[in-house]
Amino acid sequence: xxxxxxxxxxxxxxxxxxxxxxxxxxxxxxxxxxxxxxxxxxxxxxxxxxxxxxxxxxxxxxxxxxxxxxxxxxxxxxxxxxxxxxxxxxxxxxxxxxxxxxxxxxxxxxxxx
Amino acid sequence: xxxxxxxxxxxxxxxxxxxxxxxxxxxxxxxxxxxxxxxxxxxxxxxxxxxxxxxxxxxxxxxxxxxxxxxxxxxxxxxxxxxxxxxxxxxxxxxxxxxxxxxxxxxxxxxxx
Lengths: 113, 113
Known about the structure:
The complex is a heterodimer of chains A (113) and B (113).
Chain A: E1 5-7, E2 10-13, E3 19-24, E4 31-37, E5 43-50, E6 53-57, E7 65-68, E8 75-79, E9 88-95, E10 103-104, E11 108-112
Parallel strand pairs in A: 2-11
Antiparallel strand pairs in A: 1-3, 3-8, 4-5, 4-9, 5-6, 7-8, 9-10, 9-11
Chain B: E1 9-13, E2 18-23, E3 31-38, E4 45-50, E5 53-56, E6 61-64, E7 70-75, E8 84-92, E9 107-112
């Protein structure tokens, strides 16, 4: 069964450092998403991406965040200058079409120290 | 997006049928009802989606009354591995204005032997 893969599974970084979280969405999917889940809290939408541009973003997704699809397979989330409160599980997801079933990856646990 | 309300937690025993009800009083005409499952430290996983009446797949059934102000996810004969958080989401699909998922706090289902 096709799946969304994320790397790394766990990343520890120092406050103020830049991190790039990587995702390989399912190959025939057109919509890509990033979500995050702070420990013990809800899954929160960050951004959706379609046709090589952001289609929607939340208030959380400020200027510190950016997304990119650098080639035909990868989808990345960059946090420019990490803060302690960025510590969370970050999930990448993809879907075939708008509003259709979203497939989530296993997540990257980001720990900012 | 319609707000959803569901129990914070439920307990069950192996082999029992579990019904989790979600209230969505402000559901709009174009909204679909979708349920996701999340195991600890994993990404959410799509279970089932419906618009009205009853939908059944190999995992669960979804019952939606005529007024669509609530829905019930039914899990037949649960096992220990069904212990997870179950989320009810309501929003436009299939070409709707938004393609983001808004997760609530979900229902933590604990299945005991």
